[in-house]
């Protein structure tokens, strides 16, 4: 809409398939969140709610590993390493944020785990994305 | 209205940042504004996007566009418009729900979001498997 798909792929450094994967994970996740918020399913823990997101991260890591190995074998070593590093950074930041959020939601009285701390990986991610945007341009 | 990639990135980035900061402040109980105020960056950003989209569509309709290529393009734009409106509707209902203005079940609140996400998935899927469309 604001960005074309090609720009998005270039900026985020993810393949279209990975974007598809993460988007579908978000869809399933939002369904589970809604069910949890309405308490339609009794005794579902927040960890179960977050499973789609964790699964997407895992699959995405696997996919990236394969792509990087293929690139490496075809002699594009620089590209392979750069891609692997970038995707792993993004995914680990995302994962940290998800795990912290899940912990916060699962255990009610976690005073020391304030939201600023939970979202801080996202702030780092935003800075990284900005830097990358400059390079893509 | 044609913006460069850098401008668009900056626009998205700034509004995301402001929204995240306000969200954190609200969730940590540092400020006690209502949720509609917290979502202010979202409203402004969506407003800008909608305005750009409408202007583009109007421009396309007014100028005699290539009828073969144009209708496809216009249909895409129309879908974007519907998706934006659905996102806006979802955010509005979410705010109303969070502020306790309504007791609507979250499942109903999320219906526009799910519709939009499904549409986006279909669009992405068509891009991954282009041969299936023909």
From TrEMBL, chain A:
Entry GO CC: endoplasmic reticulum
Task: Indicate yes or no for the key word tRNA processing.
Answer: no
What GO terms in the biological process aspect are recorded for it?
intracellular calcium ion homeostasis
The portions of this protein that span the membrane are 12-35, 47-69, 81-101, 113-131
Q: What does the UniProt keyword field contain?
A: Membrane, Transmembrane, Transmembrane helix
Please name the Pfam families in this protein's record: Tmemb_185A (PF10269)
Q: Which InterPro entries match?
A: TM_Fragile-X-F-assoc (IPR019396)
> Would you tell me the protein name for this molecule?
Transmembrane protein 203
Organism of this sequence: Denticeps clupeoides (denticle herring)
Give me the gene this protein comes from: TMEM203
From TrEMBL, chain B:
UniProtKB keywords: Membrane, Transmembrane, Transmembrane helix
Q: Does the keyword Signal apply?
A: no
Q: Name one Pfam family in it.
A: Tmemb_185A
Q: Which InterPro entries does UniProt cross-reference here? A: TM_Fragile-X-F-assoc
Organism superkingdom:
Eukaryota
What name goes with this protein? Transmembrane protein 60
Q: Where are the transmembrane segments?
A: 9-27, 33-57, 78-99, 105-129
The answer to whether keyword Isomerase applies is no
């Amino acid at each position: 809409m604001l960005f074309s798909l090609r720009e998005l792929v270039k900026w985020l450094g993810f393949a279209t398939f990975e974007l598809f994967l993460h988007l579908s994970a978000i869809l399933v996740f939002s369904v589970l969140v809604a069910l949890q918020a309405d308490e339609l399913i009794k005794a579902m823990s927040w960890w179960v709610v977050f499973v789609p997101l964790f699964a997407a991260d895992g699959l995405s890591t696997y996919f990236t590993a394969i792509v990087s190995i293929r690139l490496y074998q075809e002699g594009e070593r620089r590209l392979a390493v750069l891609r692997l590093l970038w995707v792993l950074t993004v995914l680990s930041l995302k994962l940290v944020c998800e795990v912290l959020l899940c912990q916060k939601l699962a255990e009610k009285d976690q005073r020391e785990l304030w939201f600023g701390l939970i979202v801080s990986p996202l702030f780092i991610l935003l800075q990284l994305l900005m830097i990358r945007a400059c390079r893509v341009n | 209205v044609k913006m460069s990639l850098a401008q668009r990135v900056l626009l998205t980035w700034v509004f995301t940042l402001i929204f995240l900061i306000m969200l954190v402040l609200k969730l940590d109980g540092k400020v006690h504004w209502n949720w509609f105020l917290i979502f202010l960056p979202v409203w402004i950003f969506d407003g800008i996007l909608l305005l750009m989209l409408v202007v583009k569509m109007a421009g396309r309709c007014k100028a005699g566009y290539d009828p073969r290529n144009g209708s496809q393009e216009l249909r895409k734009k129309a879908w974007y418009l519907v998706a934006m409106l659905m996102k806006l509707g979802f955010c509005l209902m979410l705010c109303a729900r969070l502020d306790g203005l309504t007791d609507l079940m979250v499942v109903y609140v999320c219906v526009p979001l799910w519709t939009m996400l499904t549409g986006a998935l279909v669009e992405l899927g068509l891009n991954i498997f282009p041969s299936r469309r023909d």
